[in-house]
């Protein structure tokens, strides 16, 4: 069988290094399920029906990964590379064809160089671990990555990656200065050895198309000693429509030290506990103190009625905890907990907005939040602008720059797999069409959505077919990504439902 031959290959070829046998888990191994589930973030892909890997390997050395690649190629198995396991469509640990998982849980060293304001971080580390380690070295250094601390460095940076300081510092991938990757031939390459084309492609082109990324060298950014956070909820009864409408004109234009995101969801009404309402939570991080924030808000967004009492001053690392929703006073070490994010069953989609949505358009959204499918659902409006407007669309593969006012994340949740229905989120997505980016309707690879198009998983996918989803994620950069792919992995070994296609046509 595939599995038997693969394992034999693995054991024969790894005798020179630390024994790989303790790092290999087959279905008969008692730890198989717990290792598979450990970083499975979306429980939609943790059911009996979910296809399971033949083997999971948790390599500890580069040579282990080289051997896995060689043996998978020899024995016709696909590999899935998993860092933090947060892929919204489970692509790091699910495949319809026989496959093995390379789980990078042991590759999580973080080396901070305060003097040069840089760090080498391995793919299997979480962003929370990165933020924490930086904060132990300096109160004035930070890194612009995602909000959720358990996302993995490997997948997150490969797809762009952003959080509450994106308007000031850009994406995580904009702040990468070197990387190490193992390619299909098993070569360990740094930036110089891989060349600028491949180095370009892996910073935002999505993980899993070009090789196994071992580590990134990132630039640390300067944050002030004091930052200010506020969370201001407003409901339909408190003028939500007008506020969100105005927010669209403010959030991407205001001072780049200011982030104001909006989370829209149905909540229990305060006035009458039996009824529900729609709420917009205006959530903000200001890189500075209250004294500067209040006049700024009075000038640019007086309608929100922000007062001092809404604001809390803190250090940057405390703001990371606060904006993720940890209670005040939570120990910073919680960022080292690799499984704290609450796991559930969900489906997401994304959009980009270039022209403010008129009030009447917003008003059409609210009734949908009262529908059955909207229980626990939310929309997250994430402002762009600032430095994002001045980075060229082709600087890295992530193309959604100048002209985007904000991004929308739609997220539908269920408590039981049996309850799962995608019609609500798809209906909302189709309602939004006239209001969002067009030709192509943009999407964000890190908010992976297989609805927008997929490859033929068993074999060759033409560039044209893949373009259906590819230009939504990458616009014109998709061409260059396919060129790089054709050069570094012509036979398309590293592939999945949304991997970059190779132009090489021999099947
Ligand atoms: P995972 O391990 O699932 O990998 C994702 C993809 O990259 C897979 O295709 C995988 O094969 C590939 N890959 C992983 N490691 C690789 C490696 N070392 N080499 C090559 N390929 C590799 N995003 C954002 O920008 N801002 C945010 O605030 C958030 N917040 C957020 C919250 C929650 C709860 C979730 C579940 C997700 C997010 N995200 C996000 C999205 C997140 O950035 C995205 O899912 C990342 O791809 C996750 O990276 P992981 O390493 O955890 O994923």
UniProtKB/TrEMBL annotation:
| Pfam families noted in UniProt | BBE, FAD_binding_4
Biological process terms from the Gene Ontology for this record are: cannabinoid biosynthetic process
Identify the InterPro entries for this entry: BBE, FAD-bd_PCMH, FAD-bd_PCMH-like_sf, FAD-bd_PCMH_sub1, FAD-bd_PCMH_sub2, Oxid_FAD_bind_N
Q: Matching SUPFAM superfamilies, A to Z?
A: FAD-binding/transporter-associated domain-like
Q: Name one GO molecular function term.
A: FAD binding
Listed A to Z, the keywords are: Disulfide bond, FAD, Flavoprotein, Glycoprotein, Signal
Instruction: List each copy of the FAD-binding PCMH-type domain by range.
Output: 49-223
The Swiss-Prot or TrEMBL record lists the needed cofactor(s) as:
FAD
Highest taxon of the lineage: Eukaryota
Q: Which PANTHER family match?
A: OS08G0158400 PROTEIN
Similarity comment: family membership: Belongs to the oxygen-dependent FAD-linked oxidoreductase family.
Can you say what this protein is called? FAD-binding PCMH-type domain-containing protein
Tell me the organism.
Vicia faba
- Record lineage: Eukaryota, Viridiplantae, Streptophyta, Embryophyta, Tracheophyta
